[in-house]
Input
Amino acid sequence: MSDDEQRDQSQSHSRGPAQGRAQGRAQAPGEGNGRAGDKGETDRPAGPAAPATPTPGPRPEPIRFFGTTWVDHDNGYAPRRAAVAVGALVAAVAGAYLLRLAYEGLEIGNVGPFLSISVVILFAIASSIAFAKTWESFGRRVAPSSDEAALKGLKAIGFIGSLIAYFLRCLVEAPGEKLHRVEYERALAEFTRRRSSRTGNPAARRPKRKK
Output
């Protein structure tokens, strides 16, 4: 073997380990990227949770200015009662003051005592009727009728009576709370009874007739 051939073989043997080490270093970053990708997939946040299924059964009817806070007396029930009571009282006082200004205007216009007294009596009667009807609506459902439609105008004239009724009722409870609670508890008891009858003893059920 010549000197040139021996020199070529020695160079090829020296290149082999070096090339292997270089290829190993080149593959190392690829493996690191793979591990990083796996870590990124595990750290990925989960999607939004599914919405909760609504509970079956009757729903409480909301009350004006109170919503459904009257059920458990939470979510600002007491402050709402106080706010509605104060607001109704302030509105009633303001309305009475406006009526007084209107009465003084009649006196300045010299319309006569008969007309002035008639206006006072009319507002007094309208306020009494409005108070009675509003207070009655807190305890029972008023069926729509022609009489109720005819009384709307009279109740609007006697708005002071309605405001006083709201003020007095808020001192005890939310206006209409007792009526809504009775209806809600009755509907809830009826729903519970029907559900228990459906999920009762299967042996007690009547067998279906064969066709």
